[in-house]
Write a structure and sequence with these properties.
Layout: H1 18-24, E1 29-34, E2 39-41, E3 49-55, E4 58-63, E5 69-75, E6 80-81, E7 95-98, E8 102-108, H2 109-118, H3 120-146, H4 149-160, E9 170-173, H5 178-185, H6 189-201, E10 205-206, E11 213-216, H7 220-224
């Protein structure tokens, strides 16, 4: 008796690639290149576009009336930002600055709204992005309220290395100053320097101050340790 062929496994549908979609769709858009430290937009400017990071990295920050800067987020390829305009935000609540040489795609608020209404795949991708952003904000708040500066620094480094998005034992953090890390963590530069040296001695990171940080997955133990 002939054996029945084994059923063929169905390949999962490919994940939606917002990068490819935004490159191919017919909406009006511009792509800008920004060197490290270049402002993409500044606090108080009109908010008429949504941005998408094609390559590079972006720092979102807010400046207080007294001149103190607070870093809100560090973003990388595949992230949207400037989406406040979709909710009717007339002016930018903060500034966006390139942390490395970056390519940023700009879409007008009107075109972005039309895309979200007509393209379900794009809408799903954008909603997932916003939910992930909200979860990240909640985690950051909990981190600031309950965790030590050492744990906050370890978590910040893992997030900058985009831990969990790449199947690699070692990840690179784009070159970033200790002053910027201190602002993100909410501590002093001297404390950041102390903990970086400690992580280096324990083999959690590879760091000499002049090159990008190399983050080993073992750094996660600092975050998980009670």
């Amino acid at each position: 008796m002939a054996r029945k062929p084994a059923p063929r496994a169905h390949k999962p549908a490919p994940a939606f690639d917002a990068h490819v979609f935004l490159d191919s769709t017919g909406v009006a858009k511009t792509i800008g290149s920004y060197d490290r430290g270049k402002a993409i937009f500044n606090q108080g400017e009109p908010a008429g576009h949504v941005m998408y990071i094609q390559s590079g990295g972006v720092k979102l920050s807010v400046l207080s009336k007294t001149g103190r800067e607070a870093i809100v987020a560090m973003l990388g390829p595949g992230d949207f930002f400037g989406e406040g305009s979709l909710a009717g935000q007339p002016l930018r609540m903060g500034s966006a600055t390139a942390t490395v040489r970056s390519k940023i795609l700009r879409i007008s608020r009107k075109d972005m709204v039309r895309l979200l209404r007509r393209q379900h795949a794009m809408s799903d991708r954008f909603i997932a992005h916003m939910l992930a952003r909200n979860i990240r904000i909640e985690e950051d708040l909990i981190d600031q309220l309950f965790n030590s500066a050492e744990k906050r620094l370890a978590r910040t480094l893992l997030l900058l290395a985009r831990y969990g998005r790449q199947d690699k034992p070692v990840s690179l953090v784009p070159k970033i100053s200790q002053e910027t890390l201190a602002e993100m963590v909410g501590t002093t530069r001297s404390r950041v320097n102390f903990f970086l040296n400690k992580f280096k001695k324990l083999g959690f990171i590879q760091y000499n101050g002049d090159t990008p940080l190399r983050i080993n997955n073992s750094l996660l133990s600092v975050v998980l340790h009670d």
